[in-house]
Amino acid sequence: MKINNIENPLKFSYDIKGLNIPSRFFFAPINTGLSENGTLKEEFFDFYKERSHSSIGINYIGNVAIDPKYVTNSNTAYFTNQTNQWEKLVKSINNRGSVPGIQIACRNSSLIPIRKMINNNVEEYLNTVRTDLINIPKEEIQDIINKFINTSIKASNLGFNVVQIHAAHGYFLSQLISKSINLRVDEYNASDLFFLKAIINGIRDKKPNLIIDLRISFLEGINNDIHEKKEKEVLIKKLIDLDIDIISFSNGIYDINKQLIYPIEQWGHACFIQNIIDYANKYPNILWNYAGNIWDIEKLGLEELPNNLSFSLGRSLIADPLFVEKSINNKTHFINKCEYKNKCHYYSLNLSHIGCPVYELNKNIN
Ligand SMILES: Cc1cc2nc3c(=O)[nH]c(=O)nc-3n(C[C@H](O)[C@H](O)[C@H](O)COP(=O)(O)O)c2cc1C
Fold it and tell me: What pLDDT score was predicted for residue 365?
């Protein structure tokens, strides 16, 4: 990896595997709910197009399922034989100056995702998930591994330059890598990471230049923070030996405590950033990515942070697609700020797709 514009930390760009990523600020993966039976709605295209600029290094299409069987909800996207809609999406992201990325996901659970922010019966959830995971036949896990590989290869063929493997938030791979959830003792145990190696090597075999990103939940919210940090230290040491280009830190498990995924405002700006800094310093050949409560780029104190640390922004860019553009060009007073009123949590609000009152109010003004 090469870092360009090193004199200005606001305007770094990265060269990875021969591809230029024009900014260290990315659009975080967002499951928009703007898809139906695998068909992307017009708003889906608009949503991503508006958030693509040269100031957004990678624009991640959030939560694209490896198969309709493994969607998160009925409006989650997945690949069908309508490949032209994905090519159109990739083209519009490219044309606007961002690198098209895609998050590949698998939710495999007997439980319907909870709508509440905080689950008040975590033990029951854990018991169910642990038992479900133990009982999954090996053949099904192998089939999921193959689907991750094939979907990633398909994504690359459609023009996506970055594939983010979703191993965060209680999704299937996040369960498999979790020592607190995965109690299997066969080759799919949580220590050997056989399934991750199989996925990464399977993609690499066919796509040597594809940029591979892995998103994990650094804090899961199951045990105390010290315990979880130690556990992740062990995990990350193993991840470093896999052929991964970007390691992305998120937090939380959807069905336990969503506040860890989208931190509440009171927890403060970039509230979990300390967790990633040492890793970025220790492993300079990997690009690290932090997400969570970034609403003021100046407050990040970029001069003090490792150069190989990038940032994914969710709600700030949902509220104002030009958030980064305005931030890095001295136009912060024009930013339409997220109010952290949870209106974008459409699933919790029993709605089918994303909405943002701040964005809606301002879209015709700017
Ligand atoms: C409406 C909504 C949908 C989200 N969907 C996903 C998703 O599909 N995959 C994922 O990994 N994270 C998802 N996230 C989490 C974001 O990627 C991001 O990590 C989180 O919002 C914290 O960043 P922020 O404080 O800048 O919003 C979602 C967040 C929101 C608000």
Answer: 73
Nearest to 55, CA basis, from 362, 329, 245: 329
The pLDDT assigned to 366 comes to 57
**Crossing angle for the helix pair 138-158 and 83-96, nearest 10 degrees?**
50
344 lines ligand 1 (CB under 6 A): yes
All residue ranges of the chain with pLDDT < 50 are: none
* C-beta 232 within 6 A of ligand 1: no
Q: Determine which residue's CA is closest to atom 19 belonging to ligand 1.
A: 291
DSSP character string of 48-74: HHHT-STT-SEEEEEEEESSGGG-SST
- pLDDT tens figures, 242-290: 999 999 999 999 999 999 999 999 999 999 999 999 999 999 999 999 9
Do strands 99-105 and 162-167 pair parallel, antiparallel, or not at all (unpaired)?
Answer: parallel
**Domain residue limits at 212:** 2-362
147 touches 67 (CB < 8 A) = yes
- The confidence score (pLDDT) of residue 363 equals 87
Q: CA 193, CA 178: separation in Å to the nearest integer?
A: 10
* Residue 63 near ligand 1, beta carbon < 6 Å: yes
**Domains of the chain: total:** 1
Measured in Å, residue 91 CA sits from the centre of ligand 1 at 23
Residues 54-64: pLDDT tens digits?
Answer: 999 999 999 99
Please tell me the distance between residue 214's alpha carbon and the centre of ligand 1 in angstroms. Answer: 15
From the CB of 103, is ligand 1 less than 6 Å away? yes
33 within ligand 1 shell (Cβ under 6 A) = no
Rg, Å, the chain Cα set: 19
Cα–Cα dist 209/16, whole Å: 9
CA proximity to 18, closest of 90, 115, 99:
99
CA torsion 359-158-311-228 (nearest 10°) is: 110
Q: What pTM value is reported for the model?
A: 0.98
* CATH assignment at residue 177: 3.20.20.70
> Please, what is the angle between helix 42-50 and helix 83-96, to 10°?
20
